[in-house]
Write a structure and sequence with these properties.
The complex is a heterodimer of chains A (287) and B (766). By secondary structure, chain A is of the alpha+beta class. Chain A has a domain at 174-283: Enolase-like, domain 1. Chain A contains 11 helices and 14 strands. Chain A has helices spanning 9-19, 32-37, 73-78, 82-85, 87-94, 99-102, 107-112, 120-127, 224-230, 237-250, 261-283; strands at residues 2-4, 23-26, 45-48, 58-61, 64-68, 130-135, 138-143, 148-150, 153-154, 161-167, 174-181, 192-200, 206-214, 221-222. Chain A has a 5-stranded antiparallel sheet with strand order 4-5-10-6-7. Chain A has a 4-stranded antiparallel sheet with strand order 11-12-13-14, sandwiched between helices. In chain A, strands 1-3-2 form a 3-stranded parallel sheet, with helices on one face. In chain A, helix 5 runs antiparallel to helix 8 (120-127), helix 9 (224-230) packs antiparallel against helix 10 (237-250) and helix 10 (237-250) crosses helix 11. The longest helix of chain A has 23 residues, at 261-283. The N and C termini of chain A lie far apart (49 Å). The model of chain A has no long low-confidence stretch (mean pLDDT 96). The longest helix of chain B has 28 residues, at 530-557. In chain B, helix 7 (239-250) packs across helix 8 and helix 11 packs across helix 12. With 766 residues, chain B is an alpha+beta fold. In chain B, strand 22 (564-567) and strand 23 (570-573) form a beta hairpin. In chain B, the strands form 7 sheets. Chain B has a 7-stranded mixed sheet with strand order 3-7-1-14-11-12-13, with helices on both faces. A 5-stranded mixed sheet of chain B has the order 9-17-16-15-10. In chain B, strands 18-26-27-28 form a 4-stranded mixed sheet, with helices on both faces. The chains are: A alpha+beta (287), B alpha+beta (766). The interface between A and B is medium-sized, with 21 and 25 residues. Bound molecules: flavin-adenine dinucleotide. Residues 24-32, 34, 49, 69, 95-97, 101, 104-106, 108-110, 112-113, 118-119, 161-162, 187 of chain A line the site of flavin-adenine dinucleotide. The site of flavin-adenine dinucleotide (FAD) has 29 residues of chain A, from strand 2, helix 2, helix 7 and strand 10.
Chain lengths: 287, 766
């Protein structure tokens, strides 16, 4: 097993291309190293991207944030502004693991590990985030909901890496939130995860909204029906119930060791209502 | 050890104080040496090849390619272990059959569970060892498998052991089955008992196998010298047991094996058997190199422990006033691949907390294609007591008594005859119930979506073979060597008992756990016996040191030995000779030891008798989320009779630890199998033991009703605390929701489903 620590994106892409199917990107390694240790993966070359400065930065560009793909959960939390603009994204990323894991785990790794239950991904999808992808043919941007296809299957090439996530500029009275259901209180994988981002008009009606669910299908889902339920409405109990129903209707889960289909469908509705309520209160400036 | 806080008015100097744990600092700084921490010159790594199938016949094993791989130093299979005749021999609380033990360590004719060892290699690196495992060719004839206990009992179930005829049936069955044994115990006339009852409740319960969940995986290092002397360093609860099993399976003399117990990172009963140890010794012998073996977490979960899953039927009858008049139970226990589930102790303790005239218990020990169960804290007790305490809770509600009042009315006391035979001596069940009733927890009002549960617990506790030596060193300090591995703070407790007996400061006594070459036989740390038995032996050894000190002074002073007494850590002339000589300190006695007869050593070898049961009452509050079914334990109080708490902090730690494990068992822990018979959650991510934030601070109350058979009144305390929590949580959930959960674990999907079903019928409280 060879270990490489390139200093630039170009070098990383070149190493990755040269390594072929034997190469693996490593950000925090909190998924990768566990998989190597349990004999799930046996990569010939590990390409550590934490030494690439551009991947470790958070920059603000005209109200939008560009978050390097190798920024850790702990660094996200410590950023002076990110948390107040995107509390849902930061709280989702901060749910990953423990204090120790937070010092290493990244949103890039969370997405590229290809788990339908990854916590930061529904929050990023709800936020309308774009993934910036670099490869031998240059750079391109892809909506986060289009990156993952199925468990361990991504739409990006073996020789591509995610360099950053772009979180769009926010109108006033906007906020987001993320909640997951786990049987314990921490150190667990979401049985259902739900992210909501919304914007309110001056009169309090919802003018924009996105809801995404994790762990209820083969990949994290953008629930487009949720937008229709929320936009143009004042968010009250009746609207929240409809939102819950829309979330449940979007689920296509499986029965597995972490929960039954029936349970996941019910919990999706519960979380959708609760998360929308939190995002609403935040957008109204109550939290 | 410092920070001694003494209760005012105590008759003791050390007993009942809370000195800082002597082994604690080393453990938190990483200096302590656990099972995997020994490294010997030339050491190589051993790894086990395990069956991917839950049930298959082994047609052949070809290890030739693995043996040829550079770096591989030895390969062993079943052929390297002596086959054993089928014969049951007592092993502490359980019986074992070496014919099964040798097959559990290394599969012979068949593999009987996923993870069953089929071969092992030792190589110069872990990665070479792994590569070598891939080169071993095993030709399996895959057979149909059976996982569930009731499925395994069906007449057409796949047979694990073609020659297994159920024991304990008359007439004996003519056909083999997976039912190893039927047991029955009872008292009185069960039919008459139920006929006299005004209220009868009958319920069925299911529990899943759960693992002991020790954080330290099984680990050992073995080395065998050119002349066949073997040394083994191992994480175990009983190194004499390990020595006996290894000698037997390898066909070596017991004297050829010296076993040292490493510091242990948890055992809970699961480290009372052998898995890697005989394999490591065989590999070390064959390779001529020291061999270290460490299980992965996956191996721990798939191939060690757990305790049984079970199906339990309980029927209890009461008079209108709440007097229990009849109790019956049927216990179907899953043993894993080989017989020997704890169904017998489960049956024995099921109704033990209550004085009931008519009792009948029938149990079945059933094999299926899962890892062979090992002891887990009060083996069998928590399963039976979960069922019984749930029914007692319902009975209390039916007769209109609060759950403590009903239990007080029927509580076992001194003189009560238990269904399993004996009459109890002084026991503290009533005292724990009264303490619960008086506790602020019991009277604190509950909030929305909250409920409170009560449950009782009981465990027998044992004594057994024990040896301790206590040397008076030349400077007057003392070295105490005990043979029961220290898991819960034993060294400190023994130090305190020796210090009390000798009136010596605790910093003057160093306690170590000796290896098998240093002492006579010691049965293991289990059955809550270590503080009881090694404590009893320690007191005897200390008394011998005192007698010997008096003898030596008598010799110096030319007085008869009766004319010398030991007072306050000194020897002095007594009676008419009082004051004739200056008292001598232990250091002064030690200084004359050579001249007066040689080293002074107290040595005690006993079979400790008089172990006494410990009863508990637990109070539990839960809050249930009506929309998700998630139950959170928000307050918990464990009240238990300790006999006497030598070091109260350790006793409280035992209570808290048992509750923490019990809450895990109640809410989330379970083995999940796919239709292929393979375990799907062999890791701590999906095998959900509670994390710290899942638990409230667990409050404890130590009740002290001394055990008259122990010099300081000690009862065992380690096992009873895991008996009540499952029922305490279930009873609290029932109280909060109106829904009775009978199937463990009470995980959110199950609770939500039960709640929704009850809501549909208008039977839920939320
Ligand atoms: C104890 C523990 C607890 C955990 N708890 C949670 C949890 O609560 N919620 C949760 O969602 N996850 C959890 N995880 C999983 C893991 O920590 C997260 O998925 C984390 O975000 C992964 O990030 P990483 O940087 O460590 O990824 P890595 O392990 O470095 O990489 C993961 C995968 O992504 C690829 N990759 C990484 N970065 C890039 C990139 N920029 N471009 C292309 N490919 C890339 C790697 O090749 C690899 O295949 C936990 C893990 C552990 C060990």
């Amino acid at each position: 097993m060879r270990y490489e620590a390139p200093a630039t994106v170009d070098q990383a892409v070149a190493l990755l291309s040269a390594a072929g199917p034997d190469g693996r990107v490593m950000a925090g390694g909190t998924d990768l190293l566990v998989q190597v240790r349990t004999d799930v993966l046996d990569p010939g070359v590990i390409i550590d991207i934490k030494g690439i400065a551009e991947l470790r930065q958070i920059t603000e560009e005209a109200g939008a944030f560009r978050v390097g793909a190798a920024v850790t959960g702990a660094e996200l939390k410590e950023h002076p502004k990110l948390k107040s603009v995107w509390p849902g994204v930061v709280e989702a990323a901060n749910l990953i693991g423990s204090t120790q894991v937070q010092g290493r785990a990244t949103m890039g790794g969370n997405l590229c590990n290809g788990s339908p239950a990854a916590d930061s991904v529904p929050a990023l999808i709800a936020a309308g985030a774009k993934a910036v992808i670099a490869g031998p043919k240059g750079r391109r941007e892809v909506a986060v909901e289009d990156v993952m296809l199925a468990p361990r299957k991504l739409s990006i090439g073996r020789d591509e890496i995610i360099t950053a996530f772009v979180l769009p500029a926010r109108p006033a009275r906007s906020s987001d939130a993320y909640l997951r259901f786990i049987p314990r209180t921490e150190m667990d994988i979401a049985v259902v995860g739900c992210g909501v981002s919304l914007t309110l008009g001056a009169d309090g009606t919802c003018t924009a909204a996105r809801l995404a669910l994790g762990a209820v299908a083969e990949k994290p889902l953008l629930v487009t029906a949720a937008q229709d339920v929320l936009v143009g409405k004042r968010i009250d109990e009746a609207v929240l119930d409809k939102l819950g129903a829309a979330a449940s209707a979007a689920c296509r889960p499986i029965d597995d060791k972490r929960g039954t289909k029936e349970f996941r469908v019910k919990i999706a509705a519960v979380l959708a209502r609760r998360v929308a309520q939190i995002a609403l209160e935040r957008a109204e400036g109550k939290q | 050890m410092q920070e001694k806080v003494k209760e005012p008015g105590s008759e003791f100097t050390h007993i009942g104080t809370r000195p800082v744990r002597p082994d604690g600092v080393d453990k938190v700084t990483g200096r302590a040496r656990f099972g995997a921490d020994l490294s010997l010159p030339g050491q190589i790594t051993g790894k086990v090849l395990r069956s991917p199938h839950p049930h298959a016949r082994i047609r052949s094993i070809d290890t030739s390619a693995a043996e040829k791989l550079a770096g591989v130093k030895a390969v062993v299979t079943a052929a390297d272990f002596k086959d054993q005749p089928s014969e049951f021999v007592p092993a502490g609380e359980m019986m074992i059959n070496y014919r099964d033990v040798v097959r559990n360590v290394m599969a012979r004719e068949k593999v009987l569970f996923e993870g069953h060892p089929v071969a092992a290699v030792a190589a110069t690196s872990a990665s070479i060892a792994k590569q070598a495992l891939k080169l071993i060719k095993v030709d399996y004839e895959v057979l149909p498998h059976v996982i569930d206990v009731r499925e395994a009992m069906k007449p057409d179930a796949p047979l694990l052991h073609e020659d297994m005829i159920t024991q304990g049936m008359t007439p004996a069955p003519t056909k083999p089955s997976n039912i190893a044994k039927r047991i029955e115990i009872g008292l009185g006339d069960i039919a008459a008992g139920f006929a006299a009852a005004d209220i009868v409740i009958e319920r069925e319960f299911d529990t899943k196998p759960v693992h002991q969940g020790y954080i330290e995986p099984h680990a050992c290092s073995a080395t065998v010298s050119e002349d066949g002397q073997a040394e083994l360093w191992v994480s175990t609860q009983g190194h004499w047991i390990v020595r006996a099993h290894c000698a037997r399976l390898l066909g070596w003399d017991v004297s050829k094996i010296r076993v040292t117990a490493a510091e242990i990172g948890g055992g809970f009963g699961g480290k009372t058997v052998v898995y890697l140890e005989p394999i490591a010794l065989a590999l070390a012998k064959k390779s001529g190199r020291p061999v270290k073996m460490v299980m992965t977490r996956e191996e721990v979960l798939k191939a060690s422990g757990p305790t049984s899953g079970a199906h339990v039927k309980v029927k209890m009858g009461a008079k209108k006033d709440g007097t229990l008049v009849a109790a019956e139970a049927q216990l179907l226990f899953q043993a894993g691949a080989f017989q020997g589930s704890p169904v017998q102790p489960a049956a024995m303790c099921a109704f033990a907390p209550y004085d009931i005239a008519n009792v009948k218990l029938v149990g079945y020990d059933v094999v299926s294609n899962r890892p062979k169960v090992a002891a887990y804290r009060a083996p069998g007790g928590p399963i039976a007591e979960f069922a019984v305490e749930s029914v007692v809770d319902e009975l209390a509600a039916k007769v209109g008594l609060d759950p403590i009042a009903l239990r007080l009315k029927n509580a076992a006391k001194q003189g009560t005859r238990a269904a399993y035979g004996p009459k109890f001596g002084p026991v503290g069940f009533v005292e724990t119930l009264e303490a619960a009733e008086a506790h602020a927890h019991w009277r604190t009002p509950l909030g929305k979506n909250q409920g409170r549960g009560v449950a009782a617990g009981f465990w027998f506790n044992i004594g057994g073979e024990t040896s301790v030596s206590l040397s008076l060193n030349e400077d007057g300090t003392l070295s105490l060597t005990a043979g029961t591995p220290d898991i819960g703070g034993l060294r400190a407790s023994l130090c305190m008992m020796a210090g009390e007996e000798l009136s010596v400061g605790l910093d003057k006594i160093r306690v170590q756990i000796g290896d098998t070459g240093q002492l006579g036989y010691n049965f293991l740390t289990g059955g809550s016996r270590a503080t009881f038995s090694s404590g009893m032996a320690t007191v005897e050894a200390a008394r011998e040191v005192k007698r010997e000190a008096c003898k030596r002074a008598a010799k110096m002073w030319e007085l008869p030995v009766e004319a010398v007494e030991y007072v306050d850590g000194k020897v002095r002339p007594a009676g008419p000779n009082a004051g004739k000589h200056e008292p001598m300190t232990l250091a002064q006695v030690a200084a004359i030891a050579g001249k007066t007869g040689g080293p002074i050593v107290g040595y005690s070898r006993i079979n400790a008798h008089g172990a006494a049961p410990s009863f508990a009452t637990h109070l539990c509050d839960v809050e249930v989320d009506p929309e998700t079914g998630k139950a959170t334990v928000i307050r918990y109080t464990a009240l238990q009779d300790a006999g006497r708490a030598i070091h109260p902090s350790y006793v409280e730690g035992q209570y808290q630890g048992g509750v923490a494990q019990g809450i895990g068992w109640a809410l989330n822990e379970e083995y999940i199998y796919g239709p292929d018979g393979r375990m799907q959650n062999a890791g701590f991510l999906d095998y959900r033991v509670p994390v710290a934030s899942d638990l409230p601070m667990i409050d404890t109350v130590i009740v002290e009703v001394p055990n008259p058979s122990h010099p300081y009144g000690v009862r065992g305390v380690g096992e009873t605390p895991i008996c009540p929590p499952m029922a305490a949580v279930a009873n609290a959930i029932a109280n909060a929701t109106g829904v009775r959960m009978t199937d463990l674990p009470m995980s959110p999907p199950k609770v939500l489903k039960a709640l929704d079903d009850a809501r549909a019928k208008g039977a839920a409280k939320m």
